[in-house]
């Protein structure tokens, strides 16, 4: 197809930046989101707001999804007013959401039944200065792909706008497995760093001293230097990948581990930790807010070393 029409469903934390990048290359772009205000932001740049996922699909040959969880994916694709109610045979769905492999496999089969292609394309990043929201803004994601190679060839022009590296991992479901593993390791690393920062503060070290030392030690990591350190130093925990989403991914990893009979005690701790943060009203903050939660639980102040509440 020489000039495919594109649509995007979900213009939230990452999706809004996907929309901006896609509009630079593929305008006009059909858009749908549960928030009309989010849609209005893009209307001046060639975004065409639609009333439903089905309406987006009617005007698109390739539809991208950026939604928060497996249930949202199922609703958007197969719901009463979902993509498959409007998609023509030969259309392609590209799901960038972080979900479980079982849902990806099910969506692949459901789409194929109606002659529609399905590709899972969750995204991650390990580029200095380019994590999460910034990677979405700059188009520097690593795109993990699961699905057919023919569908991947069709998807390359749009995926290469969103990421600078594509890794095809196998059939639908395979990319979701790897994305969950990546986030499982990352979330656990954040907790480990949080405990270290709290211990250092209680022992009298400033957060700057601690970060300086860790960045020159065997504890150095992308999670520390590109995620935690900038957030701690700026005290900015608002935009980006949220605590509730991190908890969701740890729970999905736990369910996958149970299916495969793999013991993951650290992941169980992570599930409990991020779920507790969410239940305490911190679910919409960036997931590195766990450093504050751990410090508060230990009665220490990261920014006042040696101070300890009695």
Can you describe this structure in just a few lines?
With about 300 residues, the chain is of the alpha/beta class.
Task: Describe it.
The chain has helices at residues 15-26, 36-43, 53-58, 70-78, 101-113, 133-138, 149-162, 174-202, 207-214, 222-234, 243-259, 265-282, 290-297, and strands at 6-9, 29-32, 47-49, 62-65, 92-95, 117-120, 123-124, 141-146, 163-170. It is of the alpha/beta class. It folds into two domains: 6-171, NAD(P)-binding Rossmann-like Domain (Rossmann fold), CATH 3.40.50; 177-297, N-(1-d-carboxylethyl)-l-norvaline Dehydrogenase, domain 2 (Orthogonal Bundle), CATH 1.10.1040.10. The strands form two sheets. Strands 3-2-1-4-5-6 form a six-stranded parallel beta sheet, with helices on both faces. Strands 7-8-9 form a three-stranded mixed beta sheet. α5 links the parallel β5 (92-95) and β6. α8 packs across α11 (243-259), α8 (174-202) crosses α12 and α8 crosses α13. It is globular, with a radius of gyration of 20 Å. The model has no long low-confidence stretch (mean pLDDT 94).
List the helices and strands and how they pair.
Blueprint: E1 6-9, H1 15-26, E2 29-32, H2 36-43, E3 47-49, H3 53-58, E4 62-65, H4 70-78, E5 92-95, H5 101-113, E6 117-120, E7 123-124, H6 133-138, E8 141-146, H7 149-162, E9 163-170, H8 174-202, H9 207-214, H10 222-234, H11 243-259, H12 265-282, H13 290-297
Helix pairs in contact: 4-5, 8-11, 8-12, 8-13, 9-10, 11-12
